[in-house]
Design a protein that fits this description.
Length: 140
């Protein structure tokens, strides 16, 4: 099964926003008991991120429906080998986002350092995969 760039990016963004916003809301409830200014400082952006996740999911389904009615050429479809790279990047970013949110809300210094190191590793991995893909595409 092949996915278009637009579908994959829409669903990936929706998934990332949803996971991170739900994590932030859960951490806010656990840490602050669901009340007070610190809770609302976390809750409002997390709620907006959840609304944005819904919007991106809707965009992904609209793209999917439109692309079913209007098939794309092979060049515009996401290849299965690239799909694996993109899914790993999405999962890595979600892991980092959740780890970072937990580290910041609960002020766990060691976890904050681990989150920053993980962010650098993910960035290097994504950049390496993209450079490799562009290089192989140029020589094909």
């Amino acid at each position: 099964m092949a996915f278009s760039e637009r579908q994959l990016s829409s669903f990936g963004v929706a998934f990332t926003l949803a996971v991170c916003s739900i994590t932030a809301i859960a951490c806010g409830v656990i840490r602050y008991g669901g009340q007070g200014k610190p809770f609302w400082t976390i809750m409002l952006p997390a709620g907006l991120a959840l609304l944005a996740a819904i919007a991106y999911a809707i965009r992904g389904f609209v793209c999917r429906r439109w692309e079913t009615a209007h098939p794309l050429s092979d060049e515009r479809l996401r290849r299965p080998d690239r799909l694996r790279e993109q899914l790993l990047a999405i999962l890595g970013i979600n892991l980092w986002g959740c780890l970072f949110i937990v580290a910041m809300v609960f002020q766990v210094r060691l976890l904050q350092y681990v989150a920053w190191v993980l962010a650098v590793i993910i960035l290097i991995g994504v950049l390496t995969a993209e450079i490799t893909h562009r290089h192989s595409r140029k020589h094909a």
